[in-house]
Each structure stands twice: as C-alpha cells, then as structure tokens.
Design a protein that fits this description.
Chain lengths: 359, 182
C-alpha cells in the first residue's frame, strides 16, 4: 500500500505508514460501522503509536507479567481498604480479616454460578454437527493446537459478528459464536477467532475475571460500609477525639470514595491485558496472527452486536458488543483495547508493523 | 536453632517432589502428543476410501489421479520407520492436493454434497495433522526447556530425562509450494 501522505510503499496489510506513521484507515468515510457516515464528527481516531516487534511468545509472557502486576496492585488496594477500616475502628488486623471473609463469601458465590446463565442470556444454542460442521472442525483443530479438551460449541443467532468463551476450567469450557460471524469469515479468520477464545480458556481468564470482579465488588462494599459506619463511630465517643480524629475521618472518606474507582480502573486494565494476551496466545496456536487481524477488521466494519448484550457480560466477548469502535484506546474504563490497536499488535507479531522506537 | 535444618530439609524435599512430578508430566505430555498425530493420520486413511468411492463415477478420465491417491495411502499405511513414514505421508498429502485440483474442474462434482463434506473433513484432518505436529513440537520445547534449565536440570540428569527430538519436515516437502485446500 502506498502511503497517501508521503508516498512510501508499505506492506499491503499495514495499518499505518512505515515512515510517517499516518494511519491508512480513511478518515473522511466512517472507519468502522456504528459511527455515522458523513458529516458527524464522531470520536477522534486513536493515535497509533509504534509497538515493539514481539513474537507471540514474548508478547504473551509480557502480558502475563503486566496482568500479574495489576492484579497485585488490585489486591493491595483491597487489603489497604480492609486495613484502613480496621484502623479507623482501632485494629488493622480485624479490618483485614473482615475483608478476607467478605472476599471468600463473594468469591465462592461467583465461582459456583455456572456458565449456563451466560448462554441463556445470549440465546446460545448448541451447534448442530450437521449444519456447523466447519465450525466444529475448526474448534477441534484449535483444541488440538492448544492441547486442551474439546470445549462445547454454541451458536448465537445474530447479524453482528462476535464470539465468547466461558467456563472456569478447560474441562468444562464452552465457546459460542454468532451466525453473523460464521457467514462472513473464511476458515483462516475463523481459526483466528476460535484460537483467541481457546487462549482465554487455556489461561483461565474466566477465573481471572471472577477474582478481579469480586475484588472490585468487595472494595466497593467495604468502602460503602465505612462511609455509612464512620459517622456513628464518631458520635459514639464522648467528644474528646479532637482534631487528629477529624482529619483522619476526612482522609478516610476521601479514600473510601477513591478506592472503588481506582479498583475499577485496575480491573479494566487487567481485562485489556487479558485480551492482548489471548490475541498473542491465539497467534501461537494458529501460527498466523493475520487471520485474527483480518477477522477483527471485518468485525469492526460489520458491527459486533449480540442478542441480549448488557454491561454484565460485555467483557466476555472477542470484541465488546457495546462499545463504539472509535472510542479512545486508552479509555480507562473500557474492557477491551481498541480494535485498531489489537490489529496493530497482531501485525507486529507477523513482522508487518514498523519497528519500535524503544520498547 | 535446631529447626532450621528441618525446615531446609522440608523445602528441599518439596522442591524435589514438585520438580520431579513436573518433569514426568511434561514427558507424558509430549509422548501423548506424538500419539495424537497418529490418531489424525489414521483418520485420514479412513476418510480416503469414502472419497474415492464418491468421486470415481464422475472421474472416468482421471483414473490415474485416483490410483495415485490409493497407492499413496497404501504406501503410507505400510511405511516402516519415522523417516520413511514422513515421506509417505507427504506423498499422500500431495496426491490429495492434485485430486482436489481435479475436482475443481468438474462442476457436478463440486456441487455434490457428499464431495463437499468429504472435502471439508479432509481439509480439517490435514489441519489437525499439522496442528498435532505443532503441539508435539511445542510440548517438546517446554520439556526440553525444563530439563535443560537450572535448577530442574539437576533432577533431570540424575533421573535420566533425556532431551526429546522435534518433528522435522523433510527438505523435499519444504520445497513444495503450499496449495490452498481451504
């Protein structure tokens, strides 16, 4: 592809110019379905910075490190909130213990709520081997490539192109794809999509998500308990607490309001790291990062709507069904990285994008 | 401080048990992966007679292509030794590719539902064979990394965990341009 800006010849699949970094997505027309074509300004296209050229092995292990770090930060926030409440009541240990007990209760509830709920919300039916033979074959190919047992295969009736995986353990996992996706992708692209889902299953991202979501939920609950409980505690003592106590209360309020927001931001950046990770591991399964890149491009042009889409399950899908594709990539509260950025990283794995400036 | 040696001993024994078990698990994983390749090869042998049965009535002038497929299948089944088997499997893959190229020339064959579904099954099986080989090589890499890196290589060398060999494609099949079966 010849860059319209500077005239440099680029690889046909390149997302932006090798030399001047100009994006090749046309700016006048709609880059993605979902944004109104024509005059409406819409959100600005994300600026694509060069990404490091990483093989899928390196990319995957880097994402693992990142998400572990983020998870640790989330857990530290959680313990700090517990300890903070404890110290407000005079004993840090009790606060932490309360937080951990709360976490255990919430986590076990979440853990034992099965994936059948997700299936029924989105109207997924088990794939008929006679009709969806190709789909089942591709899933089996990817289960061989990934070395995990063949998951159950489901189909959702929808014009939009999307897919998700669920199940806490590989042995009880399932993948579901929309009919819109099946109609529009070729075998290579379908492999890319299924490989991404199998990567989620193999790295147990459902479990990851449950743990992160429960941590965020407990932090919000603890902060709420503190906000409601603190005034009464202040009144309970006979006046003498004085200035230091008041200052501490203000600080406590401040933290109790900020902690849940910080936790949510951490949770979402974990979610985005897991998406990048699944892209990289999926590329390891297919040895063809461009298959998924092509599928993502098609999805972004067609739309990703699914039946029964809602905020509770949006993070499960290969492309967030609720999000506008033009939304800023670094949006702190989005579940997925922008599709353009994911395509860029996949291209980098295939050696297409320009080399990184630093890493 | 008599408990320090005791704790050290417990840690050491724990490390030994965990590492040894991990080595055994990885070795079994790549061995099993090897047999998965055979499963898929066997499946391809089983599919070919069906395909031949369906297409032979249409392809009266292309008996040669069909005979080549049947012969290649027979050669692959009776091949002895890894090198010979690899060669025979590659020849079988090539003969199937030329058969499908011929099918493309017969509109009534392409439209035939049985041929279409057999073609899909064979494409999938070809893919499964190569993904099974890829998974075998991936498992060998993980296993070899484990037995060669510190500290697990200490246990590996004492208990004779020897490096596994990668599955290699012969030079002749590297030279063949990849035909698209999709």
């Amino acid at each position: 592809m010849i860059c319209p800006g500077c005239g440099t010849a680029n690889h046909p699949d390149a997302a932006y110019c090798n030399l001047c970094q100009k994006s090749f997505f046309p700016t006048g027309v709609s880059r993605f379905a979902g944004e109104a074509t024509g005059g409406s300004p819409g959100p600005a296209a994300p600026v694509l910075r060069p990404v490091p050229m990483l093989s899928f092995y390196e990319a995957a292990s880097r994402n693992v490190r990142m998400s572990r770090l983020l998870f640790l930060a989330l857990f530290a926030t959680f313990l700090a909130v517990g300890g903070g409440i404890g110290s407000a009541y005079g004993n840090v240990g009790y606060g932490v213990a309360l937080a951990l007990i709360l976490y255990a209760i919430l986590a076990s509830t979440a853990y034992f709520t099965g994936s059948s709920l997700v299936l029924s919300i989105h109207g997924a039916r088990e794939a008929d081997p006679a009709i969806h033979r190709k789909l089942r074959n591709v899933v089996e190919e990817m289960s061989i490539a990934s070395g995990i047992p063949m998951p159950r295969v489901y189909v959702m009736e929808s014009r939009g192109m999307n897919a998700f995986a669920a199940g806490r353990r590989p042995e009880e996992a399932l993948v579901a794809v929309t009919t819109g996706l099946l109609e529009r992708v070729n075998r290579e692209e379908l492999q890319g999509v299924i490989a991404h889902e199998m990567a989620h299953i193999k790295s147990r991202d459902t479990l990851y998500n449950i743990c992160a979501a429960v941590l965020v939920g407990s932090i919000a609950l603890l902060a709420d308990m503190f906000l409601r409980g603190a005034p009464f505690r202040g009144r309970g003592r006979s006046g003498g607490g004085g200035r230091g106590n008041a200052a501490f209360l203000v600080l406590g309020f401040f933290l109790a309001i900020l902690a849940p927001i910080a936790a949510k931001i951490l949770q979402m950046s974990i979610s985005r790291q897991r998406e990048y990770h699944a892209d990289a591991v999926g590329a390891q399964f297919t040895r063809n990062p461009l298959g998924l890149a092509a599928a993502l491009r098609k999805i972004s042009q067609t739309g990703a709507e699914v039946p029964g889409e809602n905020r509770g399950t949006q993070h499960l899908f290969i492309v967030n069904p609720l999000r506008h594709f033009g939304d800023d990539a670094s949006a702190l509260l989005s579940t997925h990285p922008s599709t353009a950025l994911r395509i860029q990283r996949l291209n980098a794995m295939a050696g297409i994008a320009p080399a990184a400036v630093g890493s | 401080m008599s408990w320090i040696p005791a704790i050290l001993a417990i840690v050491l024994v724990g490390w030994f048990v965990l590492t040894y078990n991990a080595l055994v698990r990885l070795r079994n994983l790549f061995r099993n992966a090897w047999h998965q390749i055979d499963v898929q090869l066997r499946r391809r042998y089983d599919l070919i007679p069906n395909l031949v049965e369906v297409v032979k009535d249409y392809m009266s002038y292309e008996q040669e292509t069909l005979t080549r497929v049947i012969e290649a299948r027979g050669a692959a089944i009776s091949a002895k030794g890894a090198a010979e088997q690899g060669k025979a499997e590659n020849a079988l893959t090539e003969s199937l590719k030329s058969l499908f190229a011929v099918v493309e020339r017969y509109p009534e064959l392409k439209a035939n539902q049985n041929v279409a579904s057999l073609q899909e099954e064979l494409t999938a099986t070809e893919n499964k064979i190569s993904f099974a080989r890829q998974f075998y090589n991936d498992s060998v890499m993980t296993y070899n990394n484990k037995i060669q890196s510190l500290p697990s290589n200490l246990i590996a060398s004492v208990f004779d965990f020897s490096p596994a060999e990668y599955f290699e494609v012969g030079e002749e099949s590297r030279a063949v341009p990849k035909a698209d079966l999709r």
